[in-house]
Amino acid sequence: MKPIWIFRHIECEGPGYLQQILDRYQLDYQVIAIDRQDPVPVDINGSSGLVFMGGPMSANDAEPWIAAEIALIQQAAENGLPLLGHCLGGQLISKAMGAEIKANAVKEIGWHEVEPFDNSQSTQWLGALDKPVEVFHWHGETFDLPDNATPILKSRFCENQAYVKDNILALQCHVEMLPKMVIEWAELYEDELLNPSDSVQSKAQMSEHLEQRIGKAQQLADSLYDRWLTQGGFI
Fold this sequence. Notes:
The protein is built from 7 helices and 9 strands. By secondary structure, the chain is α/β, with parallel strands linked by helices. A hairpin with a 2-residue loop joins strand 8 and strand 9 (168-171).
């Protein structure tokens, strides 16, 4: 099988727990590091699926690589290639599919609960999840839903946390987190934590009970990643 391409936009926001999942299933993947000036491929011919990670930039920015990724996503969607996006990655997929990327009502940073929508797709993708679960967030923008997409997760501070459409999964939240990533982001992006609020946690708050929080969030990640890999024919 051709490799899964993973697009990394900044070094600290790599595939994290997703990489562990792919290794567990012995699936071939290639990290395309935009932060190291790796070129965006002009077509999808060398890949079996596309994954897009997060980053502090906006999907609305006029960077050449953003336009190139959006064009590649459109090509993938037209040809039925599996797509997976995390935060900025979910926004890039949404923009490529014609949805608007806009400012969220508030910044959502730290550990906040998400809960499933009451629909059949939520049941299929989230398994036995029947109550809110904490996951990690770090975003100031959000996506609208593309046509014919089904929302599966929401939070108090952001209605569109995840949606699916065939073999496409777009996430606003960060289910790929590892403990060291939470600590690193809190240090690198500490200027965004100067005024904690209901929706923005301090470094100390987001670091509390970290191993326990990560463990519970990874149960949700397992459901989402396994379903995406199954839907895409990888496992």
